[in-house]
Amino acid sequence: MQRKFSFAITTFGCQMNKSRSEHLAYLLSSHGFIPSSQKEEADILIFNTCAVREHAVERAIHHIHQTVEQLSLQRATSPIVVVCGCMSELLREKLSRKLPFVTILVGTSGWDKLPSLIQETLVERETSCFFPQEDSAPFLESGYLHGDKISAYLPITYGCDNFCSYCVVPYVTGRQRSKPMDLILQEFQNILAQGFREIILLGQNVNSYGRDFGEERAFEKLLETLEQRFGEQKIWVRFITSHPKDMRKSIIGMVRESSIFCAYFHLPLQAGSDKILALMNRKYTQREYLHLVALIRETFPEGGIGTDIIVGFPGETEDDFQETLHVVRKAQFDIAYTYVYSPRPHTRAATLVDDVPLKVKKERLSLLNSVLREVYLERVRCRLHTETTVLLDEEDDSFFHGHTASNLRVYIRKREGYQIGAFVPVKLRALQGTKVEGEIVGVRYEDSQTALSCRSDGKR
Ligand code: SF4
Fold it and tell me: Residues with Cβ within 6 A of ligand 1?
């Protein structure tokens, strides 16, 4: 009998990368490779990388180096090492020098060829680099191999047309390509059939879905079609990321009317001052951003708004930074991912003088995080003693952990008759530090008449 080879994937970066790793795992499995969660035992080590921040790149290189070196010492034969994704695309030459043991180096395209490339390498033990100009099969996501059956990612666009001045994504993933709607519907159906409870529609800028095939309102059409076909299902659907410049009243209205779309909006702010927003090429002003937030808050008082913020962009003065804090206090973000600016190759911002000292950047980051913490705690305190729905997604010996439709993390003492994957009615009881403690009240929604009307908190 022919020997089967095992593989382990390490993923760096965003949800898009996680989704691509899940698809790669599916693809390799369907070609006879065996997924393994044990790097120590896998024949093939795959590193799906990210290039969005300099610090992340250095960390990834260090991690790959250490892992491969350690494992090679422990084994009789060295593993096959595959490095793929944004970092490979951006830094091909550098990686060939810094990671000389890599067997296959692949960029962001052509992953459909990976099973055959790996097969060839297993036979011939030769190294290869593969960087096709065009993605030969960008939408062949016949399936995903997920770790659990709770939340599934479903990419609806790839690449980005926005060219924010600090961002390397358009240079490594190319221009926006929207997945045809019939393929999305098919994948959605497949994911549902596998029993998932939540589907996350993914893209760098989901609300410009379809613009590349000339349709301005294709995203609304997609939401409408999903609602019509799947609106009766016991499932949550969310979409990330939404660019504030492309967020429309019609989309917010469709979420309000829907019984499957969650009232959570991820709207990267990036900076609060109009001067910095213009330098970043974000194409909205502080006023427009806050107007959008007000509209969402008015429509979904209990809904969630998440964001990304960069501090220390070139030219950011103390006053500019105070504008960012002003927006944070006004918008009352529920979730935020914060970063210190670092110049990225090819980007327009890299031609500007990186004039904010690192010490100042770090001080601003720390102050920003403490203000974000305050506003988060304030919002949670207002929700204490109210009831909501939680999708249980993890467990340990004593507690379930889960999230609400608005993306609030909650932990709950375990009770008989419940398991992860269930939508449960929960009363938010207390704050322990930044953690929210809840208590299961009533019956599982699966067993009750109220399931549909209670699932998306903040809407009804
Ligand atoms: S919208 Fe801007 S920040 Fe987001 S991926 Fe595109 S260029 Fe990068």
Answer: 160, 162-164, 167, 169-170, 204-205, 243
